[in-house]
Amino acid sequence: MPQLLPERGPQRVFAFSNLVNAVGSGIHLTAGVLLFTQAVHLSPARVGLGLGIAGFVSLAAGVGVGHLADRLGARRVYVATLVVRGLATAGFLLSDTFWPFVLAVTLATAAHAAGQAARSPIIRRHGGSRPQEFRAYLRAVTNIGISLGALLAGWAVQVGTYSAYGVLILGNAVSFAAAAAVLFFLLPGDKPGPVAEGPRWAALRDRPYLAVTALDGVMAIQFKVLTVAIPLWLVEATAAPHWMVSGTMLVNTVIVVALQVRAGRRIDSPEAGGIAYRRSGVAFLASCALVSLAAGVPAWAAAALLAGAVAVHTLGELWHAAAGFEVSFALAPERATGQYLGVFGLGAGLSEALGPGLLIALCITWGRPGWYVVGAMFALTGLAAPFAVRWAQRGRRSAAPVPAPAPGTAAGAGASGAAAGAARGGQPAR
Q1: Closest of 62, 290, 25 to residue 142, by C-alpha
Q2: pTM score
Q3: By CB atoms within 10 Å of each CB, which of 15, 231, 337, 353 scores lowest?
Q4: What is the three-class DSSP state of 190?
Q5: Reduced to 3 states, what is the DSSP secondary structure of residue 376?
């Protein structure tokens, strides 16, 4: 990373809030599923069902709240989502049966989806000339926080008691409240910008953008491989020590911290984003194959295979994340950033809804063959992504406004149009 801290001002404030938030998220990502399967003793299938219900309910949250952030101001809306997420996370402590678990995880998941959309206009406003690169920096910061949270979660996983898990979940809830306080008191307030012209829900009518969103959503199931499938596979199907649950998260976060900004800098166009999607699909296929081999071998071999699989998976994650940053911002109109990024978050919402149940059914219940099926799904999705990105780009070019001719003769109008194009640094319309 060329620098450890962004410049003073809004970028540094936002990055610090992001770090505080991420420490709690690291706890939840590492130990959240195991809290309900190992301490509350819900079956993996019921946990997967509950996470799926939460994902489906939260699908609309990102679009609606993103549109609200465009109209009312992103900071206040994002702070509100953090507060709701903190309260919902604290509710995990009261979730000792299935339906209270579903209620708490649904509120938390919906608040997370809404927050991802609400913060996008903040990133675009304070991210400089390339908000995609600032977004990559934030992801590196997020993974520093996640690594710290994973270390704490490793203690709870090893102890395995409800009290140990409960202490960590409470810390997670506090982290959301602290992140909201930092933004509320230190980040400058924002005024809502002019609303984009056209249909009120233009993003939902943009079929090429929706196609890219759907493919990104399928690819986003890879995040659940790390937080759902691998922990359960490690604990239930391999001889690897249980502390390796935290170890796999640490391998992932160290690589992301070291390389995410660099990966984001190299993927600087939608075309490059499409190619990165393709590369990530191949990496995920290779990683799934390695994970499958960790069952039925000695503990040291299982640990080595899992660590190697996570390293390969993380390379794919770098490419996938950078591709998503680039295409989601580059293909979204600036005046409708919240709405469009909210729609793009539908893909992540689908992964939240379908991913846990799908991965548990294929990788945990079915076993080794299921890992190969999941890997093939990622590879095929990566192959399709460049075509969808090119379709979306063609739609943007055809929808680009043509400058109005200046009053006067046809020749004068042409000259004026050429001059206007030159002033913008572009070419006159043809």
Answers
A1: 25
A2: 0.74
A3: 15
A4: coil
A5: helix
Q: What is the mean pLDDT of residues 161-167?
A: 82
Which CATH number goes with the domain that contains 210? 1.20.1250.20
Give the pLDDT mean for 234-259.
88
In a domain, 407, yes or no: no
Is 384 inside a domain boundary?
A: yes
The angle that helices 131-159 and 244-266 make with each other, rounded to 10 degrees, is: 180
Comparing CA positions, the residue from 324, 344, 341, 399 lying closest to residue 70 is 341
Instruction: Tell me the H-state helices in 331-367.
Output: 337-359
Structure tokens at 177: 């409240």
Domain assignment present for 14: yes
User: What range defines the domain where residue 149 resides?
Assistant: 10-186+202-399
> For residue 403, with 0-12 CB atoms within 10 Å meaning exposed, 13-18 middle and 19 or more buried, which class applies?
middle
Which one-letter DSSP state was computed for residue 196? P
4-42 confidence digits (pLDDT tens): 677 778 999 999 999 998 888 777 776 777 778 877 788
Which residue shows structure tokens 């980040």? 187
Q: If you compute the radius of gyration of the chain from its CA atoms, what whole number of angstroms results?
A: 22
Q: How many domains does the chain have?
A: 1
- First CA to last CA distance, the chain: 43
Q: What is the rounded average pLDDT of the residues 303-328?
A: 95
Helices 131-159 and 98-126, axial angle in degrees (round to 10): 150
